[in-house]
Design a protein that fits this description.
The chain has 6 helices and 9 strands. By secondary structure, the chain is of the alpha/beta class. Strands 5-8-7-6-9 form a 5-stranded mixed beta barrel. The relative contact order is 0.21. The purine nucleoside phosphorylases catalyze the phosphorolytic breakdown of the N-glycosidic bond in the beta-(deoxy)ribonucleoside molecules, with the formation of the corresponding free purine bases and pentose-1-phosphate.
Length: about 270
């Protein structure tokens, strides 16, 4: 794995004139608009990067963006990878390893998720303060080079509390409603049944999605502080469960995205 990571890192350095990012950002479903706020210096398609998996979703562009956001050098993944696309957990999290190799010091992750908490409504934002991993595989399973991280990484603070506090203060200052909660990761791609939504709420979940946790596990393994935020694009309330509609989810993400973008732009400056 280490050789493959180094090969990819060296390719990216050559193509970006040794661009040195401070912060990595993973943009979730329908949340690629933050790219408009970046002073872009370089762009690389996933398909042109050696060893890099390619996003198979039509609404994920599959591009690495290098530039400046509010005074900080950043690298942004415009389009993430999911377990349900058929990739291994190691492939899904490979970009995090590469961003670490390029020199990032913090990782910001965004996603679109379904609300499990009746007090969290569609269109709200939720900062992730903890997670429950129900995905069937772990990105750290198997042989891992000791230089990449410890065999048994600590997960007592997977999302950095000091960064969460900064983000909540920013949300209050810009008058954006922002909850804190627990994110439950499932494999997908099917949505949950009424009984499953009820179960996920009973075990402590506030939102459910099909991503994020693998990347967060690997970031913690690599010693990267993480901040993660969900745009709640639908509601999984068993008593009033509505049929899944992808267009409505993408529309909800688009409407809520400017609020998330405002918080992230300001947060980047404080990291």
């Amino acid at each position: 794995m280490l050789r493959v990571i180094e090969e990819t890192v060296e390719y990216i350095k050559r193509k970006t004139e040794n661009f040195q990012p401070e912060i990595g950002i993973i943009l979730g479903t329908g949340l690629g608009g933050l790219v408009k706020e970046i002073e872009i210096e370089h762009q690389l398609m996933y398909s042109n990067i050696p060893n890099f998996p390619i996003s198979t979703l039509e609404f994920h562009s599959g591009k690495l963006i290098f530039g400046t956001l509010n005074g900080k050098k950043i690298i942004a993944m415009q389009g993430r990878l999911h377990y349900y696309e058929g990739y291994s957990m190691q492939q899904i999290t490979f970009p995090v390893r590469v961003m670490k190799g390029l020199g990032i010091e913090n990782l910001i992750v965004s996603n679109a998720a379904g609300s499990l908490n009746p007090e969290f409504k569609k269109g709200d934002l939720m900062i992730i303060e903890d997670h429950i991993n129900l995905q069937p595989e772990n990105p750290l399973r198997g042989l891992i080079e000791s230089s990449l991280g410890p065999r048994f990484p600590d997960m007592s603070e997977p999302y950095k509390r000091d960064i969460i506090a900064k983000a909540l203060k920013i949300a209050e200052a810009v008058e954006v409603k922002c909850h804190k909660g627990v994110y439950v990761a499932v494999s997908g791609p099917n949505l949950e049944t009424k009984a499953e939504y009820k179960y996920l709420r009973l075990i402590g979940g506030d939102a459910v999605g099909m991503s994020t946790v693998p990347e967060v596990i690997v970031a913690n393994h690599a010693g990267l502080p993480v901040f993660a935020i969900s745009v709640l694009t639908d509601e999984g309330f068993p008593e009033d469960l509505q049929p899944f509609n992808l267009d409505e989810i993408l529309e909800a993400a688009a409407k809520a995205e400017p609020k998330m973008t405002e918080i992230l732009i300001r947060l980047v400056a404080e990291l």
